[in-house]
Specification:
Blueprint: E1 10-13, H1 20-33, E2 38-43, H2 49-62, E3 66-72, H3 75-85, E4 89-92, E5 101-107, H4 116-128, H5 135-141, E6 153-155, H6 159-168, H7 173-179, E7 182-186, H8 196-203, E8 206-210, H9 231-238, E9 244-248, E10 255-258, E11 264-265, H10 267-278, E12 284-288, H11 294-302, E13 305-309, H12 313-323, E14 327-329, E15 335-337, H13 346-360, H14 362-367, E16 373-380, H15 385-393, E17 399-401, E18 406-409, E19 415-420, E20 426-433, H16 436-451
Parallel strand pairs: 2-3, 2-4, 3-6, 7-8, 7-9, 12-13, 12-14
Antiparallel strand pairs: 1-5, 4-5, 9-10, 10-11, 14-15, 16-20, 17-18, 18-19, 19-20
Length: 453
């Protein structure tokens, strides 16, 4: 059975790997599996969004579902709407992928990502489809409604206010306003153009906008906020008199922060900063195995319980719920705050980060973190994982962790993690060291030895 879903939904090249009929078929399959009468829908503003939404909507309407059209919103805003209104939803987004991609993310009526049961049902039903066969066989597989019970589309513009108000209820807005913070925000011309200005206003932040006009071609820089991709923003912040900067990805579920001098603060910095500000002794935080040691060191110092998971949002959510953890997150800037909702959310991440800076100042917070260096890379390779694992284990090490791939701890401050992608012939390599030179040397030597590159 062909796999449709990656770690964050379905993605593909529009009119190359995924054609209009694909989205129609997915609408029919989603509509057959989903039990709720209503389905909320939003998108991140990509050029192909109208086509994808139209095709998808036809399938959902044909299976008797009413569509609540929310317009352009960040993914976490759709999830918050679904949670508050007890309806499932579909987000039309390819997240951080380039502009030529689009995709679908299915959200359940509690705001969580699609459950494994429905996930398997959708993939099985899609693999069995034959939409050109006779009507009897069609009706045995797809739950078409009677013509008189086809769904309808209604529009609801409340998603933006609902989401922003939900965030503001959970932070100390008074202290943030009192700090009179000036913040650069880069919306990468994506969906946070619809919510970030209102969130800044309600938090009392003085906004310095960048790439704040919606444009589905993402003309300023690629929609994934890696350090290499946002060099123009890093240069821009050095020229502004601001307290910090925030850069979102195109669908607003991740946020990267910048210091006034352009230092790149990914999840390995922002999550420990929020832990210091928000969590107390006995609380819990969850992060995946590729996280730098900064977070577990800070957690141990504070008496906060630290739990490690496989890489991916679903694994983090599952462990957070099991451990009743208040906070979770990833080095790529995806932060989850349980009191708000169990999903990555760039909006709540900004609010919590601003609250921390208002209370302590960014310099003090950054200076309090352990001085470690971290990077990640990838290599195209068809090599088997057992062969790579065997080579890796030949190195002298003090510990090996197989939570996800193989993480080899070389000493107290250095480690290397190698894992194989589940969707493409790629290996991802992560490493930590005490200096940039040592880090670069570590990555280079392992890439050459393991993959000859």
């Amino acid at each position: 059975m062909a796999r449709l879903f990656g770690t964050s939904g379905i993605r593909g090249l529009v009119n190359r790997t995924h054609y209009p009929d694909f989205y129609l078929h997915m609408g029919l399959v989603f509509g057959t599996v989903l039990k709720n009468k209503k389905v909320a829908m939003a998108g991140d503003g990509r050029v192909t969004m109208p086509m994808v939404k139209s095709a998808l909507s036809s399938g959902l309407l044909a299976t008797g579902h009413d569509i609540i059209e929310l317009g352009i919103l960040p993914t976490p805003a759709l999830q918050y709407y679904c949670k508050r209104n007890s309806v499932p939803g579909v987000m039309v987004t390819a997240s951080h992928n380039p502009a030529e991609y689009n995709g679908l993310k299915l959200v359940m009526a509690d705001g969580l990502d699609i459950y494994r049961k429905e996930h398997e049902q959708i993939e099985k039903l899609y693999s069995m489809r034959n939409f050109s066969e006779d009507s009897v066989n069609r009706l045995n597989r797809i739950r078409y409604s009677d013509w008189s019970r086809n769904g309808k589309i209604e529009h609801d513009a409340s998603g933006r206010e609902l989401y922003v108000n939900g965030i503001c209820k959970l932070v100390d807005v008074g202290s943030i306003k009192s700090a009179k913070l000036k913040v650069l925000f880069d919306c990468v011309n994506g969906s946070t153009t619809q919510t970030a200005p209102l969130l800044f206003k309600k938090l009392g932040l003085t906004a310095v906008p960048l790439n704040e006009k919606l444009d589905g071609t993402f003309p300023a820089h690629p929609p994934e906020p890696t350090e290499a991709n946002i060099k123009s923003t890093i240069e821009a912040i050095k020229e502004r008199d601001v307290d910090f900067g925030v850069v979102y990805d195109s669908d607003g579920d991740r946020s990267i922060f910048l210091s006034p001098d352009g230092k790149y603060l990914d999840g390995n910095s922002s999550i420990p900063i929020i832990v210091r500000s928000r969590l107390r002794r006995g609380d819990s935080v969850v992060a995946p195995v590729d996280t730098a040691d900064t977070l577990p060191i800070v957690a141990e110092e504070m008496g906060v319980k630290y739990y490690q998971t496989r890489i991916g949002g679903v694994s983090i959510v599952r462990e957070m719920m099991r451990r009743k953890a208040k906070l979770g997150g990833e080095e790529n800037g995806g932060i989850l705050f349980a009191q708000h909702q169990y999903c990555r959310d760039g909006g709540i991440a900004l609010a919590l980060f601003a609250e921390a800076v208002a209370g302590h100042g960014l310099d003090e917070l950054v200076d309090s973190l352990p001085k470690l260096y971290y990077t990640r890379d990838k290599v195209q390779s068809d090599a088997s994982f057992p062969s790579i694992k065997s080579k890796l284990l030949r190195h002298k090490h003090i510990g090996a962790d197989e939570t996800d791939g193989l993480k080899l701890r070389l000493d107290d401050k250095r480690w290397v993690l190698v894992r194989k992608s589940g969707t493409e012939p790629v290996y991802r390599i992560y490493a930590q060291a005490e200096s940039k030179n040592e880090l670069n040397s570590l990555i280079s030597s392992y890439k050459k030895e393991l993959f000859g590159k």
